[in-house]
Amino acid sequence: MHDLIRFFQANATLIIANPIAFATFALLFGSGGFVVGRYFLTERIANLESRIARRDDEIDALKKRRDKTGGPSLIPVIGTSAIGENETTPLLGTWPDRPRLGPLSAPPRQRRG
């Protein structure tokens, strides 16, 4: 960018002497660069647009699924703040059934042998 500024400073007399020619060439080269860049990046742009559309569809599907369940959340909200006193919060749901292990007789590294 600094090279471009130095180029314009060095050729300021030519730009001021022929402003219409400068504007014409700037417009031609600028629009030509835009068209060439757009041509080569069309596939990438289309790919990104399709990814955005797919994500929007996934978000809509998740929202519909969330609305269908509509049950209470199993995440306790009361007592999760770091400010103030945190008391034990009762769960809103139940834990899934899982086998309970009895008390271990020794730490794991001593039970191996």
Short descriptors:
elongated; 113 residues; mainly alpha
Describe this structure in words.
Helix content is 61%, strand content 0%. The chain is mostly helical and 113 residues long. The relative contact order is 0.04. The termini are far apart. The protein contains 5 helices and no strands. The model has no long low-confidence stretch (mean pLDDT 78).
Strand fraction equals under 5%
Cα gyration radius (Å): 33 Å
Shape: elongated
Mean pLDDT: 78
How much helicity do the residues have? 55-70%
* Gap from first CA to last CA: 72 Å
> Which structural category fits the helices and strands?
mainly alpha
Instruction: Report the sheet with the most strands, covering strand number, pairing sense and barrel closure.
Output: none
Give me the number of helical elements: 5
Please provide the ordered H/E string of secondary-structure elements: HHHHH
User: Which spans have pLDDT < 50 for at least 5 consecutive residues?
Assistant: none
Tally of strands: 0
Topology:
Elements: H1 2-10, H2 12-17, H3 19-40, H4 42-69, H5 108-111
Protein name: Lipopolysaccharide assembly protein A domain-containing protein
Organism: Mesorhizobium opportunistum
Keywords: Membrane, Transmembrane, Transmembrane helix
